Amino acid sequence: MTLSDSRIRQAEKRMQVRMKSTARAIAARYDRRASRIVVSLDNGLELAFPPRLAEGLAGAKPADLAVMEISPTGLGVHWPRLDADLSLPALMSGVFGSRRWVLTLVS
């Protein structure tokens, strides 16, 4: 399937609408006292969860959990020392990892 310029422009417009209506991360930190990842959103909400719930973060050292980056779109959080990534929309839906990883938890 070949993408035309028109289809690309339509897709870009859909993404712009979606980005305006989706909460995005503006800050993230590891709270050592509570042992929680805390992600601050641009709508004023904060999402906090224990690292043991998330793929790639369970069992990680606090120093490694503390080093994280927010994606340029604000839709993801990356831990470079752990090579772990989580999607903000997925986190907000209660999904803390890939389907394959989640299935290993229930097996």
Can you give a write-up of this model?
- There is one protein chain.
- This protein is α+β, with helices and mostly antiparallel strands.
- 32% of the residues lie in helices and 25% in strands.
- A hairpin with a 4-residue loop joins strand 1 (25-31) and strand 2.
- The longest helix is centred in the N-terminal third of the chain and has 17 residues, at 5-21.
Helix and strand topology:
Elements: H1 5-21, E1 25-31, E2 36-41, E3 46-49, H2 62-65, E4 69-70, E5 76-79, E6 84-87, H3 88-92, H4 99-106
Antiparallel strand pairs: 1-2, 2-3, 4-5, 5-6
Can you tag this structure with a few keywords?
107 residues; three-stranded antiparallel sheet
Query: From the alpha-carbon coordinates, what is the Rg to the nearest angstrom?
Result: 16 Å
Q: Main beta sheet: strand number and arrangement?
A: 3 strands, antiparallel
Order of helices and strands: HEEEHEEEHH
Helicity level, as a percent range? 25-40%
Strand segment count: 6
The overall average pLDDT, rounded, is: 88
Q: How many helices does DSSP assign? A: 4
Which strand order do you get reading across the main beta sheet?
1-2-3
Span between N and C termini? 39 Å
User: What would you call the shape?
Assistant: globular
Q: Give the helix/strand class.
A: alpha+beta
